């Protein structure tokens, strides 16, 4: 009888569902001017890090209704999607802009992600900063970190774009500059809707 139990035991164990937690996606690197988004990166490096199936080259919408070519990370996963527009488009190397549009796990080294508030970004920067008014293609863009910590990205510039809720108070529209501590800007309660690493043609 004991021999039979010993013989059957491995098969019984195999039928019991594993209690170990399912493996999730690999943790993402910081959204920064280093690592996979460094100045000398290319599409081949992205494929090595994230996998061939998670990197595609396609047209994506840009400002003012234009379409541009970009390498897209995680094209079927909006939360992890990143668009990389190349300075050398032919060889798909040297990023010009690296863009995150959607809420998800991407964070800067300071912990800023899509949905961050004006106050949270001010705290990460260590001081108020300057951004443009809302209601146009480049509305809500950070224009100057005014010497704060977020101005010290290595190799490229971190740029955030804010938008307020659909209904907001205060005269903060148009192609004008505002300090983030402006009372009307604070009253509008904008949050980050886009993050960019910009090499600006360097």
Approximate strand percentage: 25-35%
Distance between the termini: 77 Å
Radius of gyration: 22 Å
Q: Total strand count, please? A: 9
Q: Let me know the average pLDDT.
A: 87
**Amount of helix:** 10-25%
3D shape: globular
Uncertain stretches of 5 or more adjacent residues: 1-24
Describe the model.
Helices cover about 20% and strands about 25% of the residues. With about 200 residues, the chain is α+β, with helices and mostly antiparallel strands. The strands form two sheets. It has a six-stranded antiparallel beta sheet. A three-stranded antiparallel beta sheet has the order 6-5-8, with no helix packed on it. Strand 2 and strand 3 form a beta hairpin. The protein is globular and about 45 Å long.
What would a concise description of this structure say?
The protein is α+β, with helices and mostly antiparallel strands. The protein contains four helices and nine strands, in the order ααββββαββββαβ. The longest helix has 14 residues, at 2-15.
């Amino acid at each position: 009888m004991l021999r039979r139990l010993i013989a059957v035991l491995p098969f019984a164990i195999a039928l019991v569902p594993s209690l170990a937690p399912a493996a999730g996606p690999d943790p993402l690197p910081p959204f920064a001017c280093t690592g996979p988004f460094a100045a000398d990166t290319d599409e081949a490096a992205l494929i090595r890090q994230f996998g061939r199936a998670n990197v595609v080259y396609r047209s994506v919408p840009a400002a003012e209704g234009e379409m541009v070519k970009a390498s897209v990370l995680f094209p079927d996963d909006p939360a992890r999607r990143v668009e990389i527009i190349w300075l050398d488009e032919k060889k798909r190397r040297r990023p010009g802009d690296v863009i995150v549009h959607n809420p998800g796990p991407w964070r800067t080294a300071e912990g800023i992600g899509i949905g961050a508030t004006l106050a949270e970004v001010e705290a990460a920067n260590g001081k108020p900063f300057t951004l443009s008014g809302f209601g146009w293609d480049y509305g809500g863009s950070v224009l100057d970190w005014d010497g704060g910590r977020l101005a010290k990205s290595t190799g490229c510039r971190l740029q955030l774009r804010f938008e307020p809720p659909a209904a907001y108070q205060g005269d903060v529209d148009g192609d004008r500059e505002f300090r983030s501590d402006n009372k009307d800007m604070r009253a509008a309660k904008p949050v980050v809707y886009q993050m960019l690493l910009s090499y600006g043609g360097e």
